[in-house]
């Protein structure tokens, strides 16, 4: 109770309250503009948050992270164009409802399901906090190293069909992090006698390049468009009542979001598809899915809005980000010397509680804002894409230059922007690069620390948590190899059947 009161006291500061309001409302607006998304907005704002108090900066970023998916549902439902990538599944049932003249009902359901999922996740976190506080002190250097290794493996394996590419990009991220002075003896690595490489490659430069500048380039080189969204008429409150008729779907979907959000590298997409599949299989009207099913819309929105809250668990408890947005937030912690992990729960539980309460409040603020401002947001959707690209490009270079007043950083960011654009054009994932940089740095520091007390390889896993993490890594890799072998055999059998059919037809 004392930590809860202290958390409320922290949030009562006007700077924190303003950051929460700006982040919540700004996240909705950013999410409603197709082509931007939370990753671009957070990347642009990161340099500005370094000069703020940690709770102020993190509250603003959390506001954007948690609220952008609310806004992303608006264009997904009204014009069949998801505002953020994770709202793609919302188009399946949201847009058909709009075509039937039920746009207000669809939006109201999406808002209500998003609110339910977000609040459900935060309540789960509040319940789990004492458990985390007890478990976290048992994580030493070797346990955190193994957890980070598990995170990279999960990130790579989560990209089904692109595992080799994801693995190479994660390795590239780890390599980028090694450039410059190494952290123990300060010897130069991969600098090739170039002084500008001695300070290494800044994470924020890479983030701004790969996410923000690459998106600006994509908007500028593509055809200029101004999406049109008609105003919505009708009450936005009916969805709350209708949601109560689908409590089972909402609760199950939120549960999927919490579980998937806690696992590094999995995130919203897996949670959405699992919840959508469950809702369809358990529905009395499965034929409506994809053609305007309220249950499908609820499943999609409840799942993706439950993930942000759950994704904070590995970040806060272990200092291990599960995806790109939490990796960006981790940099804010490090800049202010507030290190996530076991010590955070032991000595700064009031800070953790303040973050939890802020996430609860942002869902309330966003819901109230959306109920009264949906038609205003439909006008924002109509911003020309090339104008938007120019704004993003300008803000990105301003943010990069403000880090160290370095034109070299701007050139590097532009280079990573071109690299990110190439990855997008080839439909390759960009997230493994960022997580490779962040988790690679954690792994190097923790491995060096752990090796001082390790005499044999078995000593590395002689503690219960380390042994469990190692067993999980082996099990996950074994299951993946088994899946690959089974799929290969299935392809061979299908090829043999096709060959036999071809032979029989020739005869």
Write up this protein:
By secondary structure, the protein is mostly helical. The protein folds into 2 domains: 2-453, no CATH class; 458-507. It is built from 20 helices and 2 strands. It has helices spanning 2-11, 14-32, 37-49, 54-78, 90-99, 103-135, 141-157, 163-178, 203-221, 238-243, 247-262, 267-282, 294-318, 324-335, 342-347, 349-380, 385-404, 407-425, 431-451, 464-506; strands at 180-181, 188-189. Strands 1-2 form a two-stranded antiparallel sheet. Strand 1 (180-181) and strand 2 (188-189) form a beta hairpin. Helix 5 (90-99) packs antiparallel against helix 6 (103-135). The chain is globular.
Q: What's the short version?
A:
The protein has 507 residues and is an all-alpha fold. Helices cover 75% and strands 1% of the residues.
Query: What is the general shape?
Result: globular
Strand tally is 2
Q: Compute the number of structural domains.
A: 2
Major sheet: 2 strands, antiparallel
Strand order of the largest sheet: 1-2
Strand content: under 5%
Strand/helix succession:
HHHHHHHHEEHHHHHHHHHHHH
pLDDT under 50 segments (min length 5)?
A: none
Query: What is the average of the pLDDT values?
Result: 80
In oligomeric terms, what are we looking at? single chain
Distance between the termini: 82 Å
Number of helices in the DSSP assignment:
20
How much helicity do the residues have?
Answer: over 70%
Q: How would you classify the helix and strand content by structural class?
A: mainly alpha
Return Rg in Å: 23 Å
